[in-house]
Amino acid sequence: MGGRVTRVFRNFNVENRASREISKEKPTPAPRHRTARLDAMTDSPEIKEEVLRKDDRFLTLLKDVYVESRDPPVRVKDGGGEHLPSKQEEKRLTKLGHLEGLDVKKVPKGKISLVEALTLLNNHKLQPQIWTAEKIAAEYSLELKEVNSLLEFFIPFTMQEFPKETKKAITSHKPKKLT
To answer: Could you name the Gene Ontology cellular component terms for this entry (predicted)?
Structure first.
């Protein structure tokens, strides 16, 4: 709605405003200052001739110049004992049980695989007294803060089956006919 209003004001009397701008006299640009060096070159033919003439002495000196370029030797940084600590170097075997063929075999410490995540979430959901956040953190080499966040924000899906009586009630319901 606001675009229509602004478009109306923007397009109001466009042709008259454009013709008024076109019919205005253009301002004359400020006069350029003549520089002494350029003026002397254009006026004096001796300077033009001097610039265009080849100097044999300079040409022979230029032929004697030989430039050879080489890339500096490539240096490989060996680190020199400045290794940063890395969690990915420490690996642990996964605890998968019967789902062993579905996931990776080794996982860095402080991380879990997808199958492990689903397993621990399901275990916590079914038996929260046994599978506490502290036990999960110790079992899977995780930080307690991350496990608490995982248990709070991620909930595994559940499958619910409706009783047969509910199914009959739903199927016996006849839809209304539109007239």
So the answer is: mitochondrion
pTM as predicted: 0.37
Cα angle value 20/26/27 (rounded, 5°): 130
- Predicted confidence at residue 67, as pLDDT, reads 82
Nearest-angstrom CA–CA distance, 107 and 91: 6
Check if the beta carbon of residue 123 is closer than 8 Å to that of residue 152: no
Whole-Å CA distances, 72 to 37, 48, 52 = 44, 44, 40
pLDDT of 129: 93
d(C-alpha 94, C-alpha 112), whole Å: 8
Tell me the two tokens of residue 161.
Answer: 């089956």
The answer to whether residues 123 and 131 touch, using CB atoms and an 8 Å cutoff, is: yes
Distance CA 60, CA 53 (A): 15
Residues of the chain scoring pLDDT < 70: 1, 35-43, 76-105, 164-179
Can you give the pLDDT at residue 88? 44
